[in-house]
Amino acid sequence: MIAFWLWRRALPVWFIVPPTVFMLFLPGIAMSINVWNFVESGQWLLAGLG
User: Fold this and answer.
1) Does the pTM of the predicted model rise above 0.70?
2) Could you tell me the residue ranges of all domains in the chain?
């Protein structure tokens, strides 16, 4: 939301890009690890929903 607001007002958005990428990348890794643990333990419903 903040990035869109800054972009619409023609303000610089370069300083918000690294935290945004980090906050997309890190939870993605955590979710992948969690889904892999579900598959290993045979919890197929959780793996499918994860």
Assistant:
1) no
2) 19-50
